C-alpha cells in the first residue's frame, strides 16, 4: 500500500516535471525540472529494492551530471532562451504525433501484457545480502564490461579536455601591457562611480560631473537595461534620458 | 505494479523523445536524451524485480556510467561549437546536407 | 621431275653462319638514325648507305659460300634462338639459292637506290628520316625472304608493310600522300588476313610453320580441300603485297612517295614479295590444281589490267606503276606454272628489279631536273638535255618491251613460252600483254624524250649529279646482261633447283628463239611501238589531256577499281556503321543513359531528404521505431 501511494505521487510529479523539461523556454528551468525527475526516479529505484542504484542515481546524475549541465549553461549563457517559432515545417506536429503514438503503443503493449506475480529479489540477494550480490556480479560476471567502462570514462575525460581546451593565440597580457593600453586609450582614469554629486547614491543613479552634466558611463549597462525594462527610471528627465541612452548603447 | 512502472517508463521515454524533436537548444536536447535514458533505467530496474534477477540493475548501472561519459563528451562538443559559432542551436549546425 | 633438296642444319660459321648480320646491320642503322634523330642529321645518310652496302657484302659472301657447296647441300638452316615455344618454333634463317637470290637483289639494288637517294633527297630537310626508313625496309625485307618459317616471314611481311606505309606517306604534309599511305596500309591488311588464316590452317593441319616440315612429302597426306584453301589464302596475301587483282588499287596511289621509294619498294623488291611467297610455298600450289590455276588467272588478268592502265596515264610514275603491276602479273603467271615457271618468274623478277628500278630512278632524275613535274604532257624533247638519263632510260625501255638480246627478251619470253605449254589461252593473252607493253612504254619514251618542248616556263632541265647517274648506269648494265646471263644454259634454273625443284623437261634456251610465239611477240611489240610513234612521236602531243574515248576513261580511272571497291565495300560498310551507330546511340546508349538519368533524377529528389537538420533525422528515427512497434503489435509478438 505504501508503495502504491509513493508510486502515484512520484509518477505524477515526474511526468509533470518531464513535461516541464520539454516545455520550459528557459534552459535553467529545464535543468531543474530534469533534476526533479531524477530525484523522483531515485526514490522509485529505492522503492523497487534497488538502494544501490538510487544512491548512484543521486550521486552521479543529480550530483555530477546535472551540475555539469548547469556549468555549461553558465558558459553558453544563462539567459539564452529558445524562440517559440518552429522553423522546420511540420516538425512539431509530427513530433507530437509520433511521440504520443509511441507512448500509446507502449501503453497498449504493456497494458495487454499479463505479468506473473513479482518474484522479488529475495532469492537473488539471499546469500550475503544485496550489496554483496551486486558486487559479486559486477566483479565476476561483468568484470570485463566494468573494466571497459573505466577505459571509456578515462577516454571521455581526455576527450572533454581536448575538445574544450583553447589554444592561447596571443601572449598573455601582463600588468605592464594593461596599463600601457589604458594610458594609450581615451580614458586613463577609472570610470566615475554612480551617485557622485547626485541626489541619491543608489547604484542606478548616474553621477553628475562638476559642470552639472550627467556622466552616462557611471551606470552599469545591464542595470540601465533592467531599469528601462522594469520602468524604474529616475524622475529627473535628464537622468532618465541618460539611463535610456545607456541601455540602448548596450543593446547595439 | 510492474505494469504501472513500465507505463510510467514509457511515458517518460515518449516525453523525452518529443523534447529531442521539438527543442532546438542543444543543451535542452541533451537533457531530454538523459530523460530517455533514465526512463529506460526505470524499466530495467522494474524488470529486475519482476523476474527476480539482479542483472537488470547491473545493466542500469552501466547505462548510468556510459551516460555520464556521453554527457561529458557531448557537452564539450557543445561548448566547442558554441565557441566558434556563438550558437547552441542544433538547427544551425546543418552544413552536412545535400 | 626433281624435287627440292633437304634442308640441312648449318653448324659451321662463315658468311652463312653470320647471315643474320644482313638483317641486323640495316636494323641497327634504322635504330641509330631514329633514336639519335637530329644528332645524326649530318652523316645519317652515309650511315644508311654504309649499312646497306655492308649487308650487300654479307649477302655476296654468303652467295659465294653457297656456290662452294654441293648441289644437295645448298639449303642451309641457321638456328638463331627459341622463338615461340608453344608453337614449337625456333627463329632461324634459311639460306638457300632462292633466298640468296632475293637477298642479293634487295641489298644490291637497295644499295644503289640508297646511293641515288643521297642526291635525290639532298634538298629535303628530312633526309635522315628517309634513310632510317629505307634501312628499316631493307631489314624487314631481308627477314621476309631469309626466315626459315612462316612466322618470321610474316613479321618481315608486316615490317615491309610498315616501311612502305611510312615511305609512301613520307611527305605527310601532302594530304594525298597521307591518304595514299593509309590506302596502301588498309588494302595490305586484307592480304595479311589471308596470309594469317593460311598460316593458321597450315599450323592446325601440319603442326608446324617451319619450311623444312612443309615439303611435298609432308603435306601429301592432307586433303585436296585443305591444300586448295591454304593455296588460295596464301595467294590472297600475295595479291595484297604484290598489287595483283583484286587488291591492286593501292599501288598507283603509292606513287605519292619519293621516287627512290617507288623504285625500291614499289617496283623492285617489296611488291615482288607475293611472287616469293608463291614460289616458297610451291609445295602447296603444286599439290592443288585449283590454286595454281587461280594463280595463273590472277597473273594474266593483272598483266593485262596493268598494261591497259599504263596506256592511259600521263603521270610518268603512275605509268610506270601500271607497268609494274603488269610485269608482276607475268611473274605471278610464271609462279603459277610450277617448277617450269619458277625459274623464269624469278629471272624476270630479278631482271625487272633492275630495269624497273632503272626507269623509276630515270623518271626521278627527269623530275629532279623538271621541278618535280610528273605530267609527261609537260615534258618533251628532253634527250638533249639529259643524255645519261635518256640513255639509261632507253636501256630500261628496251629491256622491258623485250627487245632482242636484252633482259626482258629472255625472261618474258621464257614465261610466255612456258604458259603456252600449259594453255594456249594464257599464252596468247600474255603475248597480247607484251604488245600493249610495247605501246605504252614507247608512248612514255616519245612523250618524255622526243617531240617538241612542252615545258612550264620556269623549267630548266639539266642532267643530274653523278651520285644519281652512276646508279642509273650500273642498273642499266644489269638490265642489259642479266637476262642473257640467267637464262642461257638454264643457269638460274639449275641454281634454284635445290630450293624449288626442277621440271622434268628443262627448256632449251636459244640466243634468239625463232618459234611462232617468240616471233609473234616481237611482231606485236613492234606494232605497239609503231602505233605509239604515230600517235605520240610523229603527231603533236596536246599539252592538256584530251577527253578521250570511253576506253581511255576506263583506263584512266584504273579500270574503275576504286569505284568498285567504293560501291562494294566502302558504301555498305558505311551504311553498316551508320546503322550500328544509330543502334548504339538510340538503343544501348539510350538504355544506359536513360537508366543513369532516371537514377540521377530520382537521386536529385531523394537527396532533398538530407536536410542537415538533426531533428528531422531524429523524427524519422522515432517514426520508424513507432512503426516497428506497431508492426510487432499487429503480428502479436509483443
Any overview of this molecule?
Chain A has 252 residues and is mainly α. Chain A is built from 9 helices and 2 strands. In chain A, strand 1 (207-208) and strand 2 (214-215) form a beta hairpin. Chain B has a single domain, classed as Helix Hairpins (Orthogonal Bundle), CATH 1.10.287. Chain B has helices at residues 2-22, 26-51, 55-85. In chain B, helix 1 (2-22) packs antiparallel against helix 2 and helix 2 (26-51) packs antiparallel against helix 3 (55-85). The mean pLDDT of chain B is 90. Chain C has 638 residues and is mainly α. Chain C is 71% helix and 3% strand. Chain C is built from 25 helices and 3 strands. Chain C has helices at residues 14-17, 20-35, 44-67, 97-120, 127-146, 150-168, 175-206, 216-219, 224-242, 249-253, 259-268, 273-280, 282-287, 289-312, 316-335, 339-369, 387-401, 407-422, 424-449, 466-487, 491-500, 516-538, 550-556, 561-606, 614-635, and strands spanning 8-9, 76-84, 89-95. The relative contact order of chain C is 0.08.
Amino acid at each position: 500500500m505504501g508503495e502504491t501511494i509513493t508510486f502515484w505521487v512520484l509518477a505524477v510529479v515526474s511526468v509533470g516535471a518531464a513535461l516541464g523539461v520539454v516545455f520550459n523556454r528557459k534552459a535553467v528551468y529545464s535543468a531543474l525540472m530534469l533534476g526533479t525527475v531524477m530525484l523522483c526516479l531515485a526514490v522509485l529505484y529505492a522503492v523497487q529494492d534497488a538502494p544501490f542504484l538510487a544512491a548512484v542515481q543521486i550521486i552521479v546524475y543529480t550530483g555530477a551530471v546535472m551540475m555539469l549541465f548547469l556549468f555549461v549553461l553558465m558558459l553558453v549563457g544563462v539567459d539564452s532562451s529558445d524562440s517559440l517559432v518552429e522553423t522546420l515545417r511540420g516538425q512539431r506536429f509530427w513530433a507530437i504525433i509520433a511521440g504520443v503514438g509511441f507512448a500509446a503503443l507502449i501503453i497498449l503493449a504493456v497494458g495487454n501484457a499479463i505479468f506473473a506475480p513479482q518474484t522479488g529479489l529475495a532469492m537473488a540477494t539471499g546469500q550475503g545480502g544485496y550489496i554483496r550480490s551486486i558486487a559479486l556480479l559486477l566483479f565476476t560476471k561483468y568484470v570485463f564490461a566494468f573494466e571497459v567502462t573505466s577505459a571509456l570514462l578515462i577516454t571521455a575525460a581526455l576527450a572533454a579536455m581536448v575538445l574544450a581546451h583553447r589554444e592561447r593565440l596571443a601572449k598573455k597580457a601582463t600588468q605592464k601591457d594593461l596599463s600601457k593600453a589604458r594610458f594609450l586609450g581615451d580614458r586613463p582614469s577609472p570610470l566615475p562611480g554612480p551617485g557622485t554629486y547626485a541626489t541619491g547614491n543608489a547604484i542606478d543613479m548616474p553621477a553628475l560631473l562638476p559642470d552639472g552634466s550627467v556622466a552616462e558611463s557611471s551606470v552599469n549597462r545591464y542595470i540601465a537595461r533592467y531599469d528601462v525594462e522594469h520602468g524604474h527610471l529616475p524622475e529627473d528627465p535628464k537622468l532618465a534620458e541618460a539611463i535610456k541612452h545607456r541601455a540602448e548603447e548596450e543593446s547595439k | 505494479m510492474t505494469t504501472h512502472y513500465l507505463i510510467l517508463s514509457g511515458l517518460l521515454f515518449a516525453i523525452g523523445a518529443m523534447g529531442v524533436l521539438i527543442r532546438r537548444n542543444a543543451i535542452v536536447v541533451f537533457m531530454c536524451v538523459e530523460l530517455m535514458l533514465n526512463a529506460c533505467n526505470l524499466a530495467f530496474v522494474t524488470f529486475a524485480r519482476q523476474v527476480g534477477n539482479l542483472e537488470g540493475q547491473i545493466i542500469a548501472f552501466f547505462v548510468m556510467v556510459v551516460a555520464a561519459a556521453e554527457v561529458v563528451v557531448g557537452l564539450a562538443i557543445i561548448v566547442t561549437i558554441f565557441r566558434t559559432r556563438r550558437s547552441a542551436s542544433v538547427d544551425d549546425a546543418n552544413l552536412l546536407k545535400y | 621431275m626433281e624435287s627440292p633438296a633437304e634442308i640441312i642444319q648449318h653448324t659451321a660459321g662463315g658468311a652463312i653462319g653470320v647471315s643474320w648480320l644482313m638483317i641486323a646491320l640495316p636494323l641497327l642503322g634504322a635504330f641509330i638514325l631514329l633514336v639519335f634523330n637530329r644528332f645524326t642529321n649530318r652523316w645519317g645518310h652515309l650511315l644508311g648507305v654504309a649499312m646497306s652496302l655492308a649487308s650487300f657484302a654479307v649477302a655476296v659472301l654468303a652467295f659465294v659460300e653457297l656456290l662452294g657447296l654441293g648441289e644437295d647441300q645448298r639449303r642451309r638452316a641457321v638456328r638463331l634462338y627459341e622463338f615461340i615455344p608453344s608453337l614449337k618454333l625456333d627463329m632461324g634463317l634459311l639460306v638457300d639459292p632462292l633466298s640468296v637470290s632475293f637477298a642479293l637483289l634487295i641489298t644490291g639494288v637497295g644499295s644503289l637506290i640508297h646511293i641515288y637517294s643521297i642526291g635525290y633527297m639532298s634538298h629535303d630537310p628530312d633526309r635522315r628520316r628517309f634513310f632510317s626508313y629505307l634501312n628499316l625496309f631493307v631489314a624487314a625485307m631481308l627477314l621476309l625472304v631469309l626466315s626459315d618459317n612462316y612466322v618470321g616471314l610474316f613479321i618481315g611481311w608486316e615490317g615491309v608493310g610498315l616501311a612502305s606505309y611510312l615511305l609512301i606517306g613520307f611527305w605527310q604534309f601532302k594530304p594525298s600522300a597521307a591518304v595514299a599511305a593509309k590506302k596502301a596500309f588498309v588494302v595490305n591488311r586484307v592480304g595479311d588476313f589471308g596470309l594469317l588464316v593460311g598460316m593458321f590452317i597450315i599450323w592446325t593441319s601440319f603442326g608446324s610453320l617451319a619450311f623444312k616440315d612443309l615439303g611435298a612429302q609432308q603435306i601429301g597426306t592432307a586433303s585436296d580441300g585443305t591444300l586448295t584453301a591454304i593455296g588460295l589464302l596464301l595467294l590472297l596475301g600475295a595479291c595484297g603485297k604484290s598489287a595483283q587483282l583484286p587488291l591492286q588499287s593501292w599501288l598507283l596511289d603509292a606513287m605519292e612517295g619519293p621516287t627512290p621509294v617507288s623504285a625500291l619498294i614499289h617496283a623492285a623488291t617489296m611488291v615482288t614479295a607475293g611472287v616469293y611467297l608463291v614460289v616458297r610455298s610451291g609445295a602447296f600450289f603444286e599439290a592443288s590444281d585449283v590454286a595454281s590455276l587461280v594463280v595463273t588467272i590472277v597473273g594474266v588478268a593483272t598483266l593485262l589490267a596493268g598494261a591497259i592502265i599504263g596506256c592511259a596515264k600521263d603521270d610518268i610514275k603512275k605509268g610506270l606503276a601500271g607497268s609494274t603491276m603488269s610485269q608482276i602479273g607475268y611473274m605471278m603467271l610464271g609462279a603459277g606454272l610450277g617448277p617450269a615457271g619458277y625459274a623464269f618468274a624469278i629471272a624476270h623478277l630479278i631482271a625487272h628489279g633492275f630495269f624497273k628500278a632503272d626507269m623509276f630512278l630515270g623518271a626521278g632524275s627527269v623530275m629532279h631536273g623538271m621541278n618535280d613535274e610528273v605530267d609527261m604532257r609537260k615534258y618533251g624533247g628532253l634527250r638533249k638535255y639529259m643524255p645519261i638519263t635518256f640513255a639509261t632510260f632507253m636501256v630500261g625501255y628496251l629491256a622491258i618491251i623485250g627487245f632482242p638480246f636484252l633482259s626482258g627478251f629472255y625472261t618474258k619470253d621464257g614465261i610466255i613460252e612456258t604458259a603456252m605449254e600449259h594453255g594456249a589461252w594464257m599464252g596468247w593473252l600474255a603475248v597480247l600483254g607484251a604488245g600493249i607493253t610495247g605501246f605504252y612504254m614507247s608512248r612514255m619514251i616519245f612523250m618524255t624524250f622526243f617531240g617538241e618542248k612542252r615545258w612550264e616556263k620556269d623549267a630548266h632541265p639539266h642532267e643530274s649529279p653523278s651520285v644519281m647517274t652512276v646508279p642509273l648506269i650500273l642498273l642499266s648494265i644489269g638490265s642489259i646482261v642479266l637476262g642473257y646471263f640467267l637464262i642461257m644454259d638454264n643457269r638460274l634454273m639449275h641454281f634454284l633447283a635445290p630450293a624449288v625443284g626442277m621440271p622434268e623437261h628443262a627448256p632449251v634456251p636459244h640466243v634468239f628463239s625463232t618459234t611462232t610465239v617468240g616471233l609473234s611477240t616481237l611482231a606485236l611489240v613492234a606494232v605497239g611501238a609503231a602505233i605509239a610513234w604515230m600517235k605520240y612521236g610523229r603527231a603533236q602531243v596536246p599539252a592538256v589531256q584530251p577527253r578521250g574515248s570511253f576506253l581511255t576513261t576506263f583506263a584512266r580511272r584504273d579500270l574503275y577499281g576504286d569505284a568498285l571497291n567504293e560501291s562494294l565495300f566502302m558504301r555498305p560498310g558505311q551504311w553498316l556503321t551508320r546503322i550500328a551507330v544509330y543502334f548504339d546511340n538510340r538503343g544501348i546508349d539510350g538504355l544506359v543513359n536513360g537508366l543513369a538519368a532516371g537514377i540521377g533524377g530520382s537521386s536529385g529528389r531523394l537527396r532533398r531528404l538530407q536536410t542537415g537538420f538533426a531533428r528531422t533525422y531524429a523524427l524519422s528515427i522515432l517514426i520508424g521505431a513507432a512503426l516497428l512497434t506497431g508492426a510487432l503489435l499487429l503480428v502479436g509478438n509483443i
